[in-house]
Design a protein that fits this description.
Elements (H helix, E strand, L loop, with lengths): L2 H17 L3 H69 L1 H67 L1
Length: about 160
């Protein structure tokens, strides 16, 4: 049954118990309503946990794509610089012969620096994904706690 119908059933029991001066029935109605509220809260939290987990996965994937894009740009930049070095060497082999080693080393240093920056971005993205997943796990735990509370209320209602 829907939460609204279940809640209405609980209210009817509560009012009937009050009108007929039957405290047990009244209490059963109150517990029935609390059970419905707890189940609704558990459902809401579970949905929230799923949404947070999805968002975490999307965020992590976006970070991975950004890191890949940065790496590809670094490769393209390195390729472009290498081509420039080759053109300059062809234009004036004698004049550039001594400078070629210097420029190649500079390109290597810059590529390494860009690769280090890319690795740092990947690590940061991974950390953020782990934190977001931990939040999602916490939200799922809260939803499970709320579900267990609803089950306890349900058992109390059935025993009462």
């Amino acid at each position: 049954m829907s939460g609204l119908v279940e809640k209405a059933i609980g209210k009817v029991k509560e009012v009937a118990g009050d009108v007929r001066n039957r405290p047990t029935l009244k209490r059963e109605g109150e517990l029935h309503q609390k059970k419905v509220e707890a189940e609704q809260e558990a459902s809401r939290r579970k949905a929230e946990a799923r949404r947070a987990k999805s968002e975490a996965e999307v965020t992590a994937r976006e970070r991975e794509l950004a890191a890949e894009e940065t790496r590809l740009r670094a490769e393209e930049d390195a390729d472009a610089r290498t081509a420039q070095i080759e053109r300059e060497r062809q234009e004036g082999h004698r004049r550039i012969e001594g400078q070629t080693a210097e420029r190649a080393a500079a390109v290597d240093r810059e590529t390494e620096a860009q690769q280090r920056a890319t690795r740092l971005d990947e690590v940061a993205g991974s950390r953020e994904r782990q934190e977001t997943l931990a939040e999602a796990v916490q939200a799922e735990k809260q939803a499970d706690d709320a579900r267990r509370q609803a089950e306890r209320i349900d058992r109390d209602t059935q025993q009462g």
